[in-house]
C-alpha cells in the first residue's frame, strides 16, 4: 500500500509569493505558476516525462528571480517524479536541493514535506528502514513547529505504518493511537481514516484481539470504499480474509479473499498503466535533460557573445590605458628593484660577517673555558694536594679549626669553578646522561658527608628518610644525580642555622623494574620570598638578606633545573619567608640486575709497602712534588720528568710499572709523548693527569694509547684506587 505522499499537500498549501510591481517579474511568476501546475497534472496522469520537463522549465524561471520557495517546491516535485520511475539517486539529489532552499527561507512546512518524502524513498525504494524512520522523525520535528494538525498527522502515521510493516507492533501503537486522535478531529479525510483503521486492525489481529480487529477492518473498508482507494481495498480484504480464518469462518475467509483478488486485478490494470508510463519516461528523461542542457548552454553562449561585443570597445580602451600605467610602473619597479638588490647584497655580506664572527666567538668561548678549567684547577690541585698531605703528616691538624677552614675553602673554590664550567657545558649541549649501577643510600651518605664542616659550622641536623621499598642498587647517572642533590642540600645547609634539613626519598610508582622516586629536600631556614621564587632558578641570581651576605655564584639552582630536564623531570618549589623551603622532583630509575655492587678495587690500605716504580711526568714543580709525596707515602719508588722528551729518555734507560702523564706540557704534550712511547712499549700502563673536563679529553687520551685518566684536583682515595687498578690490571 502506498503511504501518504505530499503531492496533495502541495496543491492544498501552494502559496504564490507576493508579486512585485515590475512587469518582467510578474510574467516570470506567471510562467512559474503555469509550469508548476503542468508538473503536478502530468504526475497525476503518470506522465513522468512531461512532469520532469515542466518542473525543469518552472525551475529555470524561479532561479531567475531567486524565488527560493518555488525552487524548493519544484526540486521536491522532481524528487517525486524520479522516485516514481525508480531513479532513486536522482530523486535523492533533488530532495537534498529542495531541503537546501527550504532551510534558506526557514520554511518549516517545506522541510516537513521533503523529509517525509525522503522517508518514503528510503522505506519503499532503498529498503533502508532505519534511515526511513530517521527522516520520518525529522519530518515530525518540523511539522510540530508548524502546529498544523494535518502536517503533524502525516509523519506520525507513516512512523506507525513503518513499525507495523517490520512487525514492531508495540512500537507502532503509540503512533497509531496519536494518529487516531488527530484524524477524527478533521472532517472529510476519508483516506486517512481508512488507513488508520486498517493499521489498528492489523495491530489487534496480531495481538489476537479478533473482535477489535474486526471492528477496525470493517470501519477501514467503509472509508476506503467511499474514497475509492483500490490499493487500500486490496490490502484490507487480504488481511480481513486472514482474520476470518483465525475466527474459524472459512467460508467468509474465502469470500473476502475473492474480493481481494478482484480489487487486485483492478489495481493491476491501473498499476500497469503507471508502470508503462514510468518505463517510457525513464528512457526519455535522459534525452530530454541532454536537450535541455544543450539549449541552456547555447542560450548562455549567445548571451555571452552579445555582452562581449558590447564591452569589447571599452575593454580595448581600458587595456590601452592600463598598459601605459604598467609600463610606467615597470620602469619605477626596475629602478626600485636595483636599489633594493644593492641593499640586500650589502645586508647579506654583513650577515655573513656577523655569522663568522659569532662562530669565532663561540670557538673562543669554548677555548677560553677549556683554558680556564686547566689554569684554575692546576694551582688548586696544589692547594688540595698539600692539604691532604698535611692531614696525613700531621693527624692532629684534622681537629684544628683553621685547617678545617682551609680544607673547606679549597673544596668551596673547586665547587665554584665546577659550577661555572658546568653551566657552560650544559648550555653548549655537552652534557649527556650516563648509565651505571650505583647504591642510592651510599650516594646520599657521601653527599651529606661532603658537607660535614658546613653542617657543624651552622649547627644543623640532617635527617635522612629513605623508603625501604626502594631497591639497594639502581641503574642510572649517579654523577648528575649527586650534582643535583649537592646543590639542593648545600643551599639548604647554607640558608639554615641551628635548624633541620630533611632528605626524603619516596617510591611513588613501580612498573616491572622501573622505580619512580620522589626526592624531597626540606629545611626550616629563612625561606624564599614569593617575588623571588621564579627568579631563583635563573643564572647568577642570589638570595641576599640585608643582615647577612651568603656567598655563591647563583648558579646552583639553574644547574639543577637544567640537569633535571635531562632526566625528563622538573623541580617544584614550596616556600614561605622565614618558614623554610621545600624542593621536590621525581626521577625514574631502573633496578640493577645485581642485588649489590662489588668493588672492583681492593682497599687502599693493601698497597702499603708494595715496591713498584712509577714515572711522574709533569711540567709543574709543585704538582710533581705533591704527586710524588702522595705515592711515596704508600711505598712506591718514584722518578720525575719535567717534560715529554725527558720522559722518553728515562724510559730508554729504565723500565717502570706505571706512568702518570700530564696532558698540557711545553714542547710536546702528554698526548704526543704517549704516542711516541707506544711505538716501542705497548704494555706499561699510562694514566693521564689532566685539569680538563672528562668529555673534552676522554676520546683523545684513549686514541693516543692511554689506559686511564685522573681529573685534577682529585680525591686521594680515588687517586689511589685508579693507580692500584692499573698496576694490577688482569690480576685483581
Automatic annotation (TrEMBL):
Domain Response regulatory residue range list: 613-727
Positions where 4-aspartylphosphate occurs in the chain: 662
InterPro entries found in the cross-reference section: CheY-like_superfamily, HATPase_C_sf, HATPase_dom, His_kinase_dom, HisK_dim/P_dom, HisK_dim/P_sf, Sig_transdc_His_kin-like_C, Sig_transdc_resp-reg_receiver
TPR repeats, residue ranges: 194-227
Catalysed reactions listed for this entry: ATP + protein L-histidine = ADP + protein N-phospho-L-histidine
PROSITE patterns per UniProt: HIS_KIN, RESPONSE_REGULATORY, TPR
Pfam family membership, one: TPR_8
All residue ranges annotated as the Histidine kinase domain in the record: 371-591
Gene3D superfamilies with a match to the protein in the record: 1.10.287.130, 3.40.50.2300, Histidine kinase-like ATPase, C-terminal domain, Tetratricopeptide repeat domain
SUPFAM superfamilies: ATPase domain of HSP90 chaperone/DNA topoisomerase II/histidine kinase, CheY-like, Homodimeric domain of signal transducing histidine kinase, TPR-like
Alphabetic keyword roster: Coiled coil, Kinase, Membrane, Phosphoprotein, TPR repeat, Transferase, Transmembrane, Transmembrane helix, Two-component regulatory system
Enzyme type, top EC level: transferase
Transmembrane segments: 312-331
PANTHER family linked: HYBRID SIGNAL TRANSDUCTION HISTIDINE KINASE J
Protein name, as recorded: histidine kinase
Amino acid at each position: 500500500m502506498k503511504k501518504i505522499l505530499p503531492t496533495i499537500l502541495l496543491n492544498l498549501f501552494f502559496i504564490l509569493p507576493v508579486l512585485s510591481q515590475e512587469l518582467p517579474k510578474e510574467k516570470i511568476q506567471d510562467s512559474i505558476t503555469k509550469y508548476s501546475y503542468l508538473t503536478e497534472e502530468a504526475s497525476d496522469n503518470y506522465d513522468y516525462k512531461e512532469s520532469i520537463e515542466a518542473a525543469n522549465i518552472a525551475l529555470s524561471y524561479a532561479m531567475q528571480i531567486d524565488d527560493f520557495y518555488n525552487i524548493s517546491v519544484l526540486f521536491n516535485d522532481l524528487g517525486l517524479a524520479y522516485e516514481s520511475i525508480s531513479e532513486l539517486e536522482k530523486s535523492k539529489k533533488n530532495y537534498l536541493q529542495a531541503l537546501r532552499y527550504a532551510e534558506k527561507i526557514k520554511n518549516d512546512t517545506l522541510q516537513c514535506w521533503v523529509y517525509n518524502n525522503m522517508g518514503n524513498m528510503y522505506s519503499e525504494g532503498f529498503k533502508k528502514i532505519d534511515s526511513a524512520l530517521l527522516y520520518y522523525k525529522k519530518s515530525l520535528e518540523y511539522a510540530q513547529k508548524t502546529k498544523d494538525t494535518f502536517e503533524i498527522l502525516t509523519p506520525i502515521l507513516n512512523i506507525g505504518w513503518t513499525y507495523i510493516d517490520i512487525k514492531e507492533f508495540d512500537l507502532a501503537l503509540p503512533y497509531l493511537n496519536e494518529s487516531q486522535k488527530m484524524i477524527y478531529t478533521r472532517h472529510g479525510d476519508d483516506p486517512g481514516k481508512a488507513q488508520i483503521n486498517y493499521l489498528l486492525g492489523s495491530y489487534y489481529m496480531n495481538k489476537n484481539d479478533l473482535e477489535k480487529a474486526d471492528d477496525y477492518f470493517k470501519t477501514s473498508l467503509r472509508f476506503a470504499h467511499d474514497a475509492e482507494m483500490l490499493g487500500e481495498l486490496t490490502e484490507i480484504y487480504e488481511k480481513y480474509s486472514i482474520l476470518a480464518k483465525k475466527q474459524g469462518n472459512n467460508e467468509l475467509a474465502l469470500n473476502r479473499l475473492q474480493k481481494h483478488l478482484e480489487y487486485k486485478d483492478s489495481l493491476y490494470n491501473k498499476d500497469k498503466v503507471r508502470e508503462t508510463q514510468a518505463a517510457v519516461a525513464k528512457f526519455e528523461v535522459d534525452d530530454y535533460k541532454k536537450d535541455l542542457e544543450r539549449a541552456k548552454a547555447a542560450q548562455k553562449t549567445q548571451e555571452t557573445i552579445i555582452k562581449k561585443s558590447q564591452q569589447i570597445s571599452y575593454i580595448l580602451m581600458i587595456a590601452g590605458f592600463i598598459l601605459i600605467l604598467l609600463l610606467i610602473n615597470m620602469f619605477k619597479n626596475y629602478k626600485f628593484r636595483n636599489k633594493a638588490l644593492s641593499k640586500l647584497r650589502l645586508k647579506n655580506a654583513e650577515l655573513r660577517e656577523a655569522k663568522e664572527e659569532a662562530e669565532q666567538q663561540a670557538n673562543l668561548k669554548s677555548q677560553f673555558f677549556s683554558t680556564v678549567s686547566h689554569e684554575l684547577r692546576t694551582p688548586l690541585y696544589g692547594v688540595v694536594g698539600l692539604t691532604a698531605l698535611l692531614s696525613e703528616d700531621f693527624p692532629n691538624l684534622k681537629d684544628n679549626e683553621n685547617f678545617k677552614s682551609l680544607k673547606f675553602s679549597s673544596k668551596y673554590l673547586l665547587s665554584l669553578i665546577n659550577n661555572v664550567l658546568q653551566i657552560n657545558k650544559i648550555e653548549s649541549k655537552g652534557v649527556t646522561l650516563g648509565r651505571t649501577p650505583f647504591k642510592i643510600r651510599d650516594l646520599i651518605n657521601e653527599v651529606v658527608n661532603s658537607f660535614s664542616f658546613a653542617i657543624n659550622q651552622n649547627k644543623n641536623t640532617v635527617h635522612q628518610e629513605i623508603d625501604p621499598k626502594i631497591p639497594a642498587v639502581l641503574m642510572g647517572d649517579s654523577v648528575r644525580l649527586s650534582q643535583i642533590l649537592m646543590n639542593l642540600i648545600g643551599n639548604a645547609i647554607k640558608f639554615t642555622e641551628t635548624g633541620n634539613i630533611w632528605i626524603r626519598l619516596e617510591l611513588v610508582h613501580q612498573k616491572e623494574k622501573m622505580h619512580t622516586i620522589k626526592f624531597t629536600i626540606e629545611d626550616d631556614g629563612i625561606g624564599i620570598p614569593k617575588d623571588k621564587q621564579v627568579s631563583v632558578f635563573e643564572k647568577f641570581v642570589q638570595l641576599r638578606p640585608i643582615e647577612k651576605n651568603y656567598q655563591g655564584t647563583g648558579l646552583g639552582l639553574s644547574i639543577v633545573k637544567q640537569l633535571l630536564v635531562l632526566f625528563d623531570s622538573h623541580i617544584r618549589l614550596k616556600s614561605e619567608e622565614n618558614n623554610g623551603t621545600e624542593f621536590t622532583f621525581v626521577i625514574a630509575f631502573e633496578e640493577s640486575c645485581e642485588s649489590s655492587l662489588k668493588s672492583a678495587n681492593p682497599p687502599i690500605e693493601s698497597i702499603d709497602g708494595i715496591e713498584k716504580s712509577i714515572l711522574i711526568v709533569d711540567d709543574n714543580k709543585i704538582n710533581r712534588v705533591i704527586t710524588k709525596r702522595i705515592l711515596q707515602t704508600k711505598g712506591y719508588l718514584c722518578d720525575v720528568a719535567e717534560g715529554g722528551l725527558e720522559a722518553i729518555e728515562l724510559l730508554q734507560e729504565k723500565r717502570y710499572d706505571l706512568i702518570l702523564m700530564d696532558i698540557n706540557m711545553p714542547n710536546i704534550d702528554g698526548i704526543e709523548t704517549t704516542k711516541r712511547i707506544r711505538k716501542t712499549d705497548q704494555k706499561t700502563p699510562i694514566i693521564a693527569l689532566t685539569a680538563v673536563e672528562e668529555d673534552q679529553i676522554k676520546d683523545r687520551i684513549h686514541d693516543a694509547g692511554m689506559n686511564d685518566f685522573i681529573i685534577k684536583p682529585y680525591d686521594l682515595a680515588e687517586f689511589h684506587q685508579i693507580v692500584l687498578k692499573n698496576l694490577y690490571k688482569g690480576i685483581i
